[in-house]
Amino acid sequence: MLADGYRRLARAGSLAATLLTAPGFAQAAVSAEVKGDRELGEYLSAQCTTCHQISGRSIGGVPSIVAWPEDQFIAVITSYKEGQRDNETMRTISHSLSLEEIAALAAYFGSLKLTGQAQK
Amino acid sequence: MSGMTRRSLLGAGAAVVASAVTAPAVIGQARPRVVVVGGGPGGATVAKYVARDSAGAINVSLVEPSAKFVTCFHSNLYLGGYKTFEQITHSYEALTKNYGVNHVRQTAAFIDRDEKRVRTTDNTILSYDKLVVAPGIDLKYDSVPGWGQEHEQVMPHAWKAGPQTQLLKKRLDEVKNGGVIVMIAPPNPYRCPPGPYERVSMMAHVLKASGRTNCRIVIIDPKETYSKQGLFQDGWETFYKGMVEWLGPKVHDGLKSVDPKTGTVVTGFETYKDCALVNVIPAQMAGKIARDAGLADASGFCPIDPATMKSAKDPNLFIVGDACIPGDMPKSAFSANSQAKVAAMIIRNELTGSRTFPPRYNNTCWSLIETDNAVKVGGRYEPKDGKISAAETFVSKTGETAELRKQTQEENIGWYSGITTDIFG
Fold this sequence. Notes:
heterodimer; A: mainly alpha; B: alpha/beta; FAD/NAD(P)-binding domain; 11 helices
């Protein structure tokens, strides 16, 4: 099941088409086997929540990243890190994250429940 | 170092807040006390994050006189008619109701660093184990010849959001077609580096949209270069051709004086008489409370330890936001919010033993040039070489597609909702 935010991201770019064949996806899939450090993820999430709302509410061009399946979360962040997606803000932040940290973020955001409503 | 003794502090008829003057904090015996001075993006974020993440283990007081906060960020969108004033105004209610932050509706008057106490203007005394100083900026009213605080109603600055913002919009709306607007831009360092130039863009947008295309906006800038310069100049040429003129110091040869009575601006290059509007954005410094506490250096801003956001002059104090010297980070709400989260993590660790992680700093500043046409600049930062150093930066490019510019503006709108929820929600 794809979370809403993931669907929106996929629509915004060609991610859905390229992800499964991208080198980063294989790496990400492997890293998903690593259990993410949720506490580390909670700390790192503060970098994300300046834009992405913890309730999962989506406003304007900032999608929800809450309650995604962990492997998909890892794949999306890795796609920024490896240059398959080119949003500069996301690319810059992803460059500061190790695979362990991406897994930690995936564990944290994946554990949250959507409580907010998407808005235009 | 503070010059006020405990006796003189308490002798001033102090009204004591009971919850804030309990015995010194000892983990397991009493709730440690954190006092935050200033309820802007930096201060309010620290207050929320410490209170929320400590789940009641830390007593957090936010000293902020206002019931609501008007954001400087996106105040240009209010000026441009894209947002209402209510949409850039935020209550502290969630901080008090949801996280238990004690909102002290007073102005901090004095920091007694020896006794670790803050006195407010009504002589309330707040003792602290950790203090966060986040007063934002003060304006240097003596930095523009002929202009001072007594003239800010005639020549508004609107660099502290609130009534000044509303005044600037009112004055802009009154400018007649053919009128000349002069902006006096500030010297570095100042709050929101792209802000003056986004503001000019929004002024031009309003004038153009209302058919006042014979108006001219002249920017008298003390700087040789400015943030997103190529992007703004390209945007002005594209959308507001002939309406905006930027003059650097080599051209204008210095701002000689302004005369608020006659609406005159004199430079070494030209005299602008009968200006329809003069927007003076003066030089800036850290808020008075920080300077009075001896936390600033000769620059007027406060040096910090880049790994912790602690004051370089007092390890019991943290300084976040526009008042600090943030190294390569710009003075922005995004930066303040980012710095605040590092400070909150360190504070919780030192007071409750919570886990620590390496500090992370990020910033992005979006600027709207015309409807659906926004640009951004940003980066990530890390403690290095004794300062917060840029590890990687980016900036939008000229020639980007209309679709990308529109996406950037949508991101800008989403960011505003996100950060204000992160701070105040």
